[in-house]
Automatic annotation (TrEMBL):
It comes from the Bacteria. SMART domains: PKS_TE (SM00824). It comes from Allokutzneria multivorans. Pfam families: Thioesterase. One of its GO terms (molecular function) is hydrolase activity. Residues 20-238 form the Thioesterase TesA-like domain. SUPFAM superfamilies: alpha/beta-Hydrolases. This is Alpha/beta fold hydrolase. The keyword tRNA-binding does not apply. InterPro entries: AB_hydrolase_fold, TEII, TesA-like, Thioesterase. Transmembrane segments: none annotated. Keywords: Hydrolase.
Length: 250
């Protein structure tokens, strides 16, 4: 049976390592659609597909971060036969971190966690965005600048299709509460755009408190969605750090 939560657009049977990517609130696996082709031939990219969107449009949306983590973990097993790194963007960074915690609790530590465009997990988000009416929710999506935000604003007939998943993701983000515990053994790389309106470099640097395995902060050109306009730069960064892992594992 095909995994429900994971998608691989560029399978590589001979890959030496895998990279699992978690999208932002309202995002989907297609956000990473071209990334696999831009990575080295020995890296296989898998993207997380949250319920309620694209080919999972009919699936019930997640109610909590715990539900997201449990769903991804249920599908990760077959991928753990090779070294595995995790990348998460915005809300996805917290999901990647929580999956890494769960894997380490089982003795299956990832090789590295990339936390993109997100402050440290114990910094409370809270908020009422997921409780706003449809117009208010769309205004927030436009403010942050997500892909297709202006199209969504201009076409209210699309709201019944796309807003349930977006609202659910904001609920997951706003109701998430970090539970104290041991820091990760896996190293963390935090990446933040220098013009990001949602997180500062100082906030991103606090990810260093959540690992004993080494920490790296990268401040890059761009805003909250820097991976869209500066994708090649990000893939170069990922390639470099994944190569470091592969060299250690030789």
């Amino acid at each position: 049976m095909s995994p429900r939560w994971l998608r691989c657009r560029t399978p590589r049977a001979a890959a030496r390592t895998r990279l699992v990517c978690f999208p932002h609130a309202g995002g989907s696996a297609s956000f990473f659609g071209t990334w696999g082709a831009g990575l080295p031939q020995d890296v296989e990219l898998w993207a997380v597909q949250f319920p309620g969107r694209e080919d999972r449009i009919a699936d019930a949306v997640p109610a909590s971060m715990a539900e997201v983590v449990a769903g991804v973990l249920a599908d990760l097993g077959p991928l753990l036969d090779r070294p595995l790194a995790l990348f998460g963007h915005s809300m996805g960074a917290v999901a990647a971190y929580e999956v890494a915690r769960a894997l380490e609790a089982r003795g299956e530590a990832p090789t590295r966690v990339f936390a993109s465009a997100r402050h440290a997990p114990d910094e409370l988000v809270g908020g009422d965005i997921h409780l706003r009416d449809d117009a208010g929710l769309v205004e927030e999506v436009v403010r942050v600048g997500g892909a297709g935000a202006e199209v969504l604003k201009a076409n209210p007939e699309l709201w019944p299709v796309f807003l349930p998943a977006i609202r659910a993701d904001y609920r997951v983000e706003e109701t998430y509460r970090h539970l104290a515990g041991a820091p990760l053994r896996a190293p963390i790389t935090a990446v933040v755009g220098e013009d990001d309106s949602e997180v500062t470099p100082a906030q991103a640097e606090r990810w260093s408190d959540f690992t004993t395995g080494g920490f790296d902060l990268r401040v890059v050109p761009g805003d909250h969605f820097y991976p869209v306009r500066h994708n090649a730069m990000l893939l170069d960064l990922l390639t470099c750090q994944l190569n470091e892992v592969k060299d250690v594992l030789r």
